[in-house]
Amino acid sequence: xxxxxxxxxxxxxxxxxxxxxxxxxxxxxxxxxxxxxxxxxxxxxxxxxxxxxxxxxxxxxxxxxxxxxxxxxxxxxxxxxxxxxxxxxxxxxxxxxxxxxxxxxxxx
Length: 108
Fold this sequence. Notes:
CATH superfamily of the largest domain: IHF-like DNA-binding proteins
CATH class of the largest domain: Few Secondary Structures
Strand order of the largest sheet: 1-2-5
CATH architecture of the largest domain: Irregular
Shape: extended
Order of helices and strands: HHEEEEEH
Number of domains: 2
């Protein structure tokens, strides 16, 4: 699903204009980015949490030349899904797995 698909879905479900839906989706994303930049944690109950993690400096390699490259420390965004989200995803898979396979008739 792309951001455009998400905007379209919000517009359809809430029955508002696409422009208004776009403002809502953009505002949510901007709020998440702003909180992460401030090193805040975002927790959405039943969905998951967003936070930043600090990566240590390391020595990497340039894939073209094989030369050693110093990679500085940096912050990276991290998403941790909630137990409820994991259960919902796995419940749909369990239903697919446990569903009987369709019976096909062979013509003789």
